[in-house]
Amino acid sequence: MRYAYAITAALLAGGATATLTLQQPLGAQVAQNAPGSIASATPRPNAPMSFADMAAKLQPAVVNISTTQRIQVSQQNPFAGSPFEDLFRRFGGGGTQPDGQPVTREATSLGSGFIISADGYVVTNNHVISGGPGRGPGGAQANAVVSQITVTLPDRKEYTARVVGRDVASDLAVLKIEAKNLPFVEFGDSTRTRVGDWVVAIGNPFGLGGTVTAGIISALHRNIGLGGAYDRYLQTDASINQGNSGGPMFDLNGNVIGINTAIFSPTGGNVGIGFAIPAEEAKPVIDALRRGGRVQRGYLGVGIQQIDDAIAGSLGLPKNVGEIVSRVEPGYAAARAGIRQGDVIVKINNQAVTPDSTLSYIVANTPVGSRVPIELIRDGKRQTVTAVVGERPPEDQLAAADGDGLNQDENDGATTPAPNAQASTRASIGLSLQTLTPEIARQLSLGAGVKGVVVSSVDPSSDAATQGLQRGDVILSINQRSVATIQDVIAAVDAARAARRESVLLLVQRGSTPARYVGVGIKRP
């Protein structure tokens, strides 16, 4: 998609020949685009009329990275349970050969990188050099294991690379090739980058080889919904496509200010929305990996959610203020500091928690062992606690703690509350509810000690349905008040109405996954 930008001039016509000059009073507000208020768009004396010289100087340090992978194919057996099942397996179906060995295929992947030292250290994205779940021939499920990484220079020289270090959380990796006197580039200062600055991206889109594109910085500190400490990207309209991952983004001085990592694309191709890891985030990680060290990050031990409009309304808070604690991990810094589920953290170490500066980002970049003040809102009142920042556990350990999937078991055989109670909750928040019994808890794969009420049906036209609530979800609390009966729910909704709230805050658990907060609008009688 191409975007055309135009400056529209307003022409004032009149019959009078005299010019009236108005004197602006001191301190008067003027239009953002008032004459003289914007620096001239004419290129500066040192700005390039062409990117050719710059590209010629930088391209030799940008490399193509390819991997060779062995993919273990796991096909579903369409003849399972039939007389043909054994025949299917004997001819390699189901991911195994007749002798029982797994069926594998060789595949390749392509990406980009750049050299940061004359002796052959190379930077790229971790996902460029990592095997993972994929698709084998015919769309079969496959698991890939990288067996070789090849770095190809612009002069077509090829080198086998070894991995010096990789970091999953930041999606960065450092490789080493055995060569000398190589062209290389250095990191610049991305903190000085402004929206509208020119940038140049160089990489290997679709395996075509060295490709140069130019554009501007479209946004800073862009959160693209990945979560975590590194969801804070430079956005650009410079053309970035598949295969550009790991390649550098340069400013006009030829310094690396970003590492091209992701695109937003409904079609899979460039639509003018690309994302790069800022140099300010990448360089400390790269330096640690290059030394063979481990990247240390701060950790509080909380599950957090951003506060959307519905949650803000249910808490009586303004939008974009803080993040809400959905769970507290026992034994970690937050628990020791007295932080509770449902607290809204608004500041940490005197830094405001905002969509551009998230709690994860601030904590991860706080030195391990630091004592930091944490300002939070609990029951509508502000208070401050002090926490000693711990070290973030490995990513696989955190992923296991988060669970993997939603349990949607039916709750047949459950007792049904009185019809008038069902009608009341369905009329107010669009949910029919029932008491959580031990039998239902087993059917829903809930942990021991879970208390709440179970959603038996959802009004499809309600806000609850819009927010994604489903039959089998368990509501643990409403507006920070635990609920164990339908009457508890009715009382909590009535209290919210009395306080003139437009919505209520539900703490919802689905199966064995961690509970999360959901703001649900209240229907008016």
Would you give an account of this structure?
This protein has 525 residues and is of the alpha+beta class. The protein is 16% helix and 32% strand. It is built from eleven helices and 27 strands. A six-stranded antiparallel beta barrel has the order 1-2-3-7-6-5. A six-stranded antiparallel beta barrel has the order 8-9-10-13-12-11. Strands 15, 16, 17, 18, 19 and 20 form a six-stranded antiparallel sheet that branches. β5 (141-152) and β6 form a beta hairpin. α8 runs parallel beside α11. 35% of the residues are buried. Mean pLDDT is 78; it is low at 1-22, 87-93, 133-142 and 403-418.
Tertiary shape: elongated
Q: Strand tally, please?
A: 27
Approximately how much beta-strand content do the residues carry?
Answer: 25-35%
User: Could you give the distance between the termini?
Assistant: 47 Å
User: How many H/I helices?
Assistant: 11
* Poorly predicted runs of 5 or more residues: 1-22, 87-93, 133-142, 403-418
* Strand order in space, largest sheet: 1-2-3-7-6-5
Radius of gyration: 29 Å
Indicate the multimeric state: single chain
Describe the main β-sheet briefly.
6 strands, antiparallel, barrel
Class computed from helices, strands and strand pairing: alpha+beta
Which whole number gives the mean pLDDT? Answer: 78
